[in-house]
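Annual report, structural modelling task.

Input specification for the pyridoxal-5'-phosphate complex:
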Amino acid sequence: MLEALGYRGIRRFHMNEGHAALLALELLEQRARKSGNRSVTAEDIEAVRRKCIFTTHTPVLAGHDQFPVEMMSRTIGEAERRWDIDDVRVMGVLDRILGVPHKTSDLKELSHTDSPVNMTLLALNLSHYVNGVAKRHGEITRLMFAEYTIHSITNGVHGVTWTSDPFCRLYDQYIPGWRQDNLALRYALSIPADEIWNAHMEAKKVLIDYVNRETNAGMSSDVFTIGFARRATAYKRGDLFVSDLERLWKIVDRTGQIQLVCAGKAHPKDQEGKDVIARIWHAKQVLEGAIKISYLPNYDMAMGKLITSGVDLWLNTPVPPLEASGTSGMKAALNGVPSLSILDGWWIEGWIEGITGWSVGEDMRDKQGVCDSSKDAALLYEKLEQTIMPLFYRDRRAFVNVMLHCIALNGSFFNTHRMMQQYVMHAYFL
Ligand SMILES: *Cc1c(COP(=O)(O)O)cnc(C)c1O
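The model returned the following structure:
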């Protein structure tokens, strides 16, 4: 496809997920054809590996495609090739065909004929640089594929795309050059607190107006507003916040009002994901009046921007270690919106308690035991009631100080400028 578009002489190919791994097979074919070999040699494989970089994005098994050899064969077609489907099977089934002192023919016997081809293994075997998308995700990926050297480059979001208009204007005024180099957002600390707050209120009003118009929710921009928007799927636990309604009632009673803005679609075949949405919807009915909840339909990037920039707190409650990175909290940080999140994915790196936001519970890396949702919910409620809401309602200056540090410490770092520089430095020019 790239060649048909006129791109020639590309020196590095970056495969995003195993979906892209057929690219490496095509490079293998081209290379063998050029050197006139009748089949693929170990040198061909090594040459292709030099060209390829592979990024894996999730520890969730459904994210690692496997296809029966027969289906692969049928899909790729009958054209004459210098590798045969058995080579592909071997490359996509066995860990590490390179560095193993066997001939391909021996390896064929080692892999079962009926093992499906795993696209992640295919990509791993045909790349010279492999990475996960946050430090913790790198660690988890090393546990999943112990045979490989796996690095990590933490994701980032595109600064100008995800920053709301009021904050773009503020940064243009106080940090000229931030659009070309997001690192400059470090200097956000010198922006006057009341201007941060005014820009935030402007973005918040845009969101609240939208929510009221679309869902007739009767929300107020003076009320502490929590956001939760991402794909509705079981491990993200979108319903954790509404798992103990009695407790929520008490928090509101003792500490102040709460509003919740949610969005996110479930995959049509993901019944558990649909159940998450149904439980939030049910809570919305039960809480009617006490806590206003809106579940906005048609979640997309425009809506993602509206919500991440318009709420006072960004909530994330995945089952660790399944949130490989998470990116919506980075979008929030660019808009001075702090996160309250389980310590997983990028938040392990972005979290400084009480400075850039707050954790739900502690880092579970060295802890044994299964994920306990009712315990996590209790910790979430406690942090909200004891720490975050008192700050929001009774010490606005301290709350804005957290907002400033979100921008300066996290907006300046968890962006695509820094991410691309790291890919160039560590992967593309390696
Ligand atoms: C940012 C975004 C996501 C990803 O959010 P996560 O926090 O990484 O789950 C998904 N969908 C849309 C529309 C987004 O804007």
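The pocket of pyridoxal-5'-phosphate is lined by residues 230, 299-301, 304, 326-328, 331 (CB under 6 Å).
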